[in-house]
Every structure is written in structure tokens, then in C-alpha cells.
Amino acid sequence: MSSTLIALSTLLGLAAASIKSCPANAPISCQTSGTIQNTCCTEVQGQILQTQFWDSSPATGPANSFTIHGLWPDNCDGTYEATCDSSRAYTDIDCILQNKGHGDILSYMETYWKDYQGDDESFWEHEWSKHGTCYSTLNPSCYTNYQPEDELVDFLNTTITLFKKLPTYDWLASAGITPSSSKTYTNAQITNALKSKFGATPILSCTSGKLNQVEYVFNVRGSVANGQFIAVNPTGTKGNCPTSGIKWLPKDLSTTPEANEGSCS
Q: What are the boundaries of the signal sequence (predicted)?
């Protein structure tokens, strides 16, 4: 199939409304040479990885779905910058979302963006501070009428919006690949099933031969908040799953940790 293109501008209606507009012909990330002139409209770290977990024990999330790991920028070659702005290492993300009227985002995250130890809030804070603060197109200077944490809301919303468009469990199940305590699969079986839906090669990661992570790679035209995400093959980043004998274990929901719940004033 042709490469997947997801236009977030038609899906998002949150803080992205105050993001500065970009020209329709803005350069696509990772496809420019030399210095990027408008870092609000072309990502400096331009290869974007939507990363999903499969935790079987301790189990996280629903039995029939992967969960969100994060949305990672890299330098188009597998290297990346991290923790780029400690002054925006926001905490109490659950309270920020509630106070800004985005309880719907928080509710989705509480189901699909899970920490294997039950500390979802710390996990979200880590993903934002390590990766989210490094997006050039989400810099506060890229907004008009900027309000604190607008870019955090956009980061979280983009991450879950892409996740909803990448139903890994369903794509594998449609190819006859389902979790099993005894059956194994080849790397090619899993890769081809996902590639046929996504339009580009995903990155598969395993622990002791067990599938536990899938990464989908994009370049983006415009802002991460409301741009066009174009499926591409990864450059510089490789998975570590074996060529055969890959196990995809069912989730043991009896091992799911109880989430730590905070309170907002």
C-alpha cells in the first residue's frame, strides 16, 4: 500500500488553534539540507517515532491493545537530543489537563498510557521532559497568545491521536497473529502484517525473544501540533527481535498494578 499520511490538522482542535500557521509547502522534516530557516514549521529533530508497549506481566492496559510508550523525535539517523528544557519539565500533568478542561485526554491516557509499576503520572512527566521538550515546533515561541502548558497539551494530544490511528493489536489479529503462550511467529510475519497497514517498515523490539515494543516512524510537514505525518522507513534505528521464534504472550491481567491516584486542587 502507499505510505500512510495522517493530517492532524483535521483531527485536533485544542491548543493547536493558537499555533502559528505554516505554509502549505513547508519543508518535510528529514528532507532538507543545511540550516532549517523556520524551526516552528519544520522539526529540527525530524524523524518522529510513535512508540507502543506490550506488557504481559506485569500487564498494563486492556488485554486487546498495546499501550503508549511515547512520541520521540530523533535526528533522522537514530541519534537524538533529550531533556532539552528543564524550565518546562512540567509536573502534575493530570491536574494540568483537568484545569485546562481536557479531561477527555486524561481519561484516555489513564487507560492507554500506562506505567508498569502503576505510577502513570511520573511516566507521563518523564516522557514529556525527556522527549516533548525537544520538539522545535512546540516551542512556546511558535504560539500566538501562548498560555503556559499549551505545548504540553498538544504533545499529549498528538501522541494519543497517532496511537488511535495505529491499532497494532487489530492489525496483527487481522493477519491471524494473536497473543499465545505456546505459538511463535517470525519477524517477517509480524513486520509484513504491520507494514501492509502502515505503509512503511515498523521497528520491533523484544526482550528474551518476547515482543514488547513496536515503533512507527514518520516525517512531518509543519508542526507536530497540527501537521501532516508521513509514514517512512526508519533510518539509523533497528529493532532487536530474532528472525524467528518470537513469542507474543497474552497479558496476565491479574498482575496489573494498581494505579497511584493523585488529587487536584
A: 1-17
**pLDDT tens per residue, range 191-244:** 999 999 999 999 999 999 999 999 999 999 999 999 999 999 999 888 999 999
Nearest-CA neighbor of 89 among 137, 132, 142, 153?
Answer: 132
Q: How many residues does the chain have?
A: 265
Q: What is the pLDDT of residues 22-64, one digit of tens each?
A: 999 999 999 977 889 999 999 999 999 999 999 999 999 999 9
**CA 60: distance to chain centroid?**
16
- Which CATH fold would you assign to the domain 5-255? Ribonuclease Rh; Chain A (3.90.730)
Cell numbers linked to 111:
487507560
Q: Give yes or no: 131 in active site.
A: yes
The count of other CB atoms within 10 Å of the CB of residue 177 is 19
Question: How do the domains of the chain map onto residue ranges?
Answer: 5-255
Residue 126 known to be catalytic: no
Rg (CA), the chain: 18
Give the integer Cα–Cα distance in Å for 16 and 150.
8
Q: Which of 121, 127, 149, 151 is catalytic?
A: 127
Peptide bond before 58: cis, by omega within 30 degrees of 0?
yes
Catalytic, 102? Answer: no
pLDDT, residue 236, reads 84
